[in-house]
Amino acid sequence: MAERFTIIILAAQRNGRLDPLAAEAGVTHKCLVPIRGLPLLAHVLSALGEVGDIDSIRISVEDGAAERLRPIATLSGLPIAFVTAADNIADSVYRAAEGTTGPVVVTTADNVLLPPRAVRQVMNRLASGSDAVVALARKEDVLAAHPQGQRRFYRLRDGEFSNCNLYGLSQGGLKLAETFREGGQFKKNPMRIARAFGLFNLLLLRFAMVGLAGAMKRLSRRFSVKAEAVVLADGAHAIDVDNRRTYDIAAELLDRRAA
Known about the structure:
There is one protein chain. It is built from ten helices and ten strands. The chain is of the alpha/beta class. The strands form two sheets. Strands 1, 4, 5, 6, 7, 8, 9 and 10 form an eight-stranded mixed beta sheet that branches. A two-stranded antiparallel ribbon has the order 2-3. The radius of gyration is 17 Å and the shape is globular.
């Protein structure tokens, strides 16, 4: 019998503030902003609907906001529950994962270019024994998808990478959610890397003194887990809807897929 997975979708407003895209669209949450005729969240749910082996989907959003998202969830036909978000990403993940007994996959409600096959790759790594899996894309592949797709990359000895807002965690690997207690966007806030992963590891990254495999080994040792990266071939997977620029890029890429 195939292992069943729980999917956690982070949909709460960042720092509890109305997102500029949401304000522009006249909606309460960024995940409700329409793109190519559907809310951002609907695109993510559509991709997850093609994955299979999903036990449940838990959407983490502020208290009282679930009713605004419920019509989208109902239309998807997927087994969805809403969980009240905490005031930080780490506790939101822990809260959404409460009561689960198997592995979880974490993504965001603005990850509109999320493909089913990428989720499957992460799930397969978890099923084969990994405790933590992070999906990455190489810089050259991201820029091939769109020359303005990303502007910040993690520079390692064997290349530059961008994360794809897609993570897998076993029950033992859930403790790695702690690294996001101060928020994500490590490239914008290098000291978050130091506090989450240690100053020495920050210096190794800063001067590209470690390759991707070595970085995963160091992460594994620090948290006493088996951590690994999945490098996705399509660089578009690293482009989510963060602002007006990336919204327009995502819309263009969605058009290409449809064509």
